[in-house]
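It is worth pausing here to work through a concrete case rather than discussing structure prediction in the abstract. The textbook approach is simple: state the sequence, then state the predicted structure, then interpret. We follow exactly that order.
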Amino acid sequence: MIPGKTIKKYLIENGLRVEDLAKKIGISRQYLSIAMHQLKKVSPELAIKIEQATDGEIKKEWLVFPEAYKDEINEYLKEKIEVKL
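Step two, the predicted structure:
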């Protein structure tokens, strides 16, 4: 569930909802939720859109190849969450 955790952290830190990010990407909330819960693999195209929408904070490689970037992802997840108001 690593892709979902990275996206959830980003949403929390930026005071966003799933709907907000989905709209920015141009997909439905349901589709993003499915990707976050890994019910469907994140496509390279969607990963690029997420990376662009998050200004590179969530890397496309993390979403497409989470096992290969496990250590890097875990470091990102360990960073203190700062909620922006």
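Step three, interpretation. The helical segments are 2-13, 18-25, 29-36, 44-53, 60-64, 70-78. The radius of gyration is 12 Å.
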